[in-house]
Amino acid sequence: MNSQLGKIKQEFFKSLEEIKDVLQLEKLENEFFSRKSGKMNEVMKVLKDLVGEARKEFGILANELKIEMEKKLAEKKQELNQEKLGSLIQEEEIDVTEPKLPIHEGGHLHPETKVLWEMEDVARSMGFIVEDGPELDSDYYCFEALNIPKTHPARDSQDTFYIKDHPEWCMRPHVSNMQVRLLQKYGVPLRAAYPGRVFRNEATDASHEHTFYQFEALVVGKDINIGHLVGIIKELLRGLYNTDVEVRLRPGYFPFVEPGFEMDMKCLICHGVGCGACKHSGWVETLGCGLMHPKVIEGAGFDSKVWTGLAFGMGLTRLAMQKYKIDNIRLLQSGDLNFLKQF
Ligand code: DAH
Fold first, then answer.
1. 20 to 30 A from 179, CA-CA: which of 37, 54, 167, 307?
2. Is 281 inside any structural domain?
3. What is the residue with the minimal CA distance to atom 12 of ligand 1?
4. Do 66 and 128 reside in the same domain of the chain?
5. Is 97 among the domain residues?
6. The domain containing residue 70 runs over which residues?
7. What is the pLDDT along the chain (343 residues), one digit of tens a residue?
8. Which ligand 1 atom lies nearest to the CA of residue 179?
9. Which protein residue's CA is at the shortest distance from atom 13 of ligand 1?
10. End residue of a domain, out of 91, 123, 154
């Protein structure tokens, strides 16, 4: 077999043997199959310079190897999932003497879930794919890949929970952990939304929670500008609220966008007059946004002189408050059925 392919094969199988969990497996998959910089894809480029029989032979061998590697990856994934399931079943104890719970009337969705589903629908109608992502993730995707190196002060405001004995893993502090992962998975151009649960090392008070939900989206293409950014966000909000929403931009700093902004929307509850929901200012701080930093695009393996992008991320709580005209943030998380039953 061609020596280059042989080397890749050996390297792949050696690394595969050492894999212990799904995150490591995903990393390995990226190392070999990421669209732009995966080792296997690099090899495919060699094909271009070959001719005749050599080209044919190399093509066949490379393809066979690719199929074999993909099969092994899938098998390994299944094996890891089985192991996890096995240990979960072992841990579960069923107490057959436990009294049966009384049957209550059927439940319904939490207002934030409703808002989330509506946002997903609007995003899909605008051509975005909607993806889920891991809540436990690597330091790389949560920070490093987003231009937030180890010593960066932005780590303070996004402090999160780390896993004992695994300093390279953490509970994601934002869904931005999906930016580089999605670019590696789907390549460019890309339109993607990725909502989900996020975690912060916060003391809980009236407006801070250690666990909450975010909705984020990005667009990567050619010549993306701030006009696109504002237009897309306004359209999404219009889809959610069924009305035009007035917005304003303020400069804001996020290491993964340049320039970065904070966007406020005119309060839909008091129409700008001032109420509890907008802290009596008439405007609600709605989201962070900006044009994707070239380092993020380069980090995902793309040429930032050719590819540009926009990204924006927001918490679902404020969106739900505006949608359902709730002016006290504590009510949403209260678990108070008298309140929640209204929605
Ligand atoms: N990830 C940021 C946070 O959790 C929010 C954010 C800001 C997302 C700017 C973005 C962005 O996509 O462009 O605070």
1. 167
2. yes
3. 312
4. no
5. no
6. 2-91
7. 578 889 999 999 999 999 998 889 988 998 998 877 788 888 888 888 888 888 888 889 999 999 999 999 999 999 998 888 887 777 777 788 888 777 766 788 999 999 999 999 999 999 999 999 999 999 999 999 999 999 999 898 899 999 999 889 999 999 999 999 999 999 999 999 999 999 999 887 767 789 999 999 999 999 999 999 999 999 999 999 999 999 999 999 999 999 999 999 999 999 999 998 899 999 999 999 999 999 999 999 999 999 999 999 999 999 999 999 998 888 888 888 888 888 8
8. 12
9. 289
10. 91
Q: Is residue 100 part of a domain?
A: no
Question: Are 238 and 270 in the same domain?
Answer: yes
Does one domain contain both 121 and 239?
yes
Q: What is the CATH number of the domain that holds 141?
A: 3.30.930.10
Q: How far is the CA of 291 from the centre of ligand 1 (A)?
A: 11
Q: What are phi and psi of 133, to 5 degrees?
A: -140, 170
Same domain, 79 and 124: no
Contact 278 CB / ligand 1 (< 6 Å) = no
DSSP string, 53-117: HHHHHHHHHHHHHHHHHHHHHHHHHHHHHHHHHHHHHHH----TTSPPPPPPPP----HHHHHHH
Number of domain units in the chain: 2
Atom nearest to 257 CA in ligand 1? 13
Orientation of helix 22-33 relative to helix 39-46, angle to 10°: 20
d(CA 317, ligand 1 centre) in Å: 15
Q: What are phi and psi of 58, to 5 degrees?
A: -60, -45
**Ligand 1 binding pocket mutation candidate from 159, 176, 287 (most atoms within 8 A of CB):** 176
Decide: 125 and 239 in contact? Cβ < 8 Å: yes
Give 57 Cα–ligand 1 centroid separation in angstroms.
Answer: 48
Measured in angstroms, how far is the CA atom of residue 215 from the centroid of ligand 1?
Answer: 10
